[in-house]
Amino acid sequence: MSDKGIEISNEELLEIEKELKSLEEREKKPTTVAKSRIEKDITRISTGVPELDKALEGGVPKGSWVAITGEPGTGKSILCMHFAWAGLRVGDPVVYVTTEAEFRDVIRQAKLFGMDFEQYKIYDISSTKELGEIPNIVVIDIFGLLKVARQMSEAIPTDVETARKRRFAALDVQTLTAAIQEAYKILGVLKEGIKSPVRHVRLIIDSMSAFWADKPAMARKYSYDLKIAAHRDNVTTYLVSQYAMTTKSTFGFGLEHIADGVFYLWMDDVESTKEVARYMIIKKMRMTNHARTAFRVEILPGKGFVLESLK
Q1: For 1-50, how does the pLDDT look when each residue is reduced to its tens digit (9 = 90+)?
Q2: Domain ranges of the chain
Q3: CATH code reported for the domain at 42-309
Q4: Which of 291, 301, 227, 311 minimizes the C-alpha distance to 47?
Q5: What's the rounded Cα separation, in Å, for the pair 247 and 283?
Q6: Residue 245 φ then ψ, to 5°
């Protein structure tokens, strides 16, 4: 050893650099054993559509936020019904937010597809009736959101100017998150000091587009605000977003940025084809492999949403 330190040849330096690079690559890419261990740890949540479960290697990874996007009439709401129905069948509590229709209309339509929600205990958050038994499903429609917004506004200081500035609207993300939190309490899935429900919950919001219809440029911010406030490991969420008929793009481009998965639905131009032909593709899904090709969508009496391979 010299007073200049340890002398290392160029060949040795190259070997060290190779070894360091190899270690970095191994850290980036888990070994096959590590991968299989991760895959085993993933709990799959059924979509309620057998062909879609198969395309997702068994279902949506638990805790995912799934954006369902597409133009009107492509089957987005029916896909939500299947997800809720599958949850009720296995004992998962369901929170069903509907801004597009009253829940009684959802019930009627679901019956046509062999899903009878009235077999289960349903509680509407806008109801003035006293809660009896713990329900299986809590419904939040526009009337429920109005009720929560009014309660939130009444809870602020009585100063007129403050009240005017801070009055909460029904179609406001803060109102939505407060309503969802109230639904968790009604379902009895919260424990004091713990944010995530103690049981797995299925959350459906059909649709998110209503919350930014008059300010689409804010969609991305509102989506992030909602995820920060409402995302929980023990909650798997479907969020519907409409596509504009003219531009064929999502209103505000909000949900696809924060979603773990995206189901995109569309249909052929009926003026050209003279028939209704619907399609769906899984654009992305984190934590799992998934089918990369599109499916033909059929909506059938007694069955509902059915996927058929294009191959």
Answers
A1: 444 444 555 665 566 556 555 544 544 444 444 444 445 689 999 999 99
A2: 42-309
A3: 3.40.50.300
A4: 291
A5: 19
A6: -65, -35
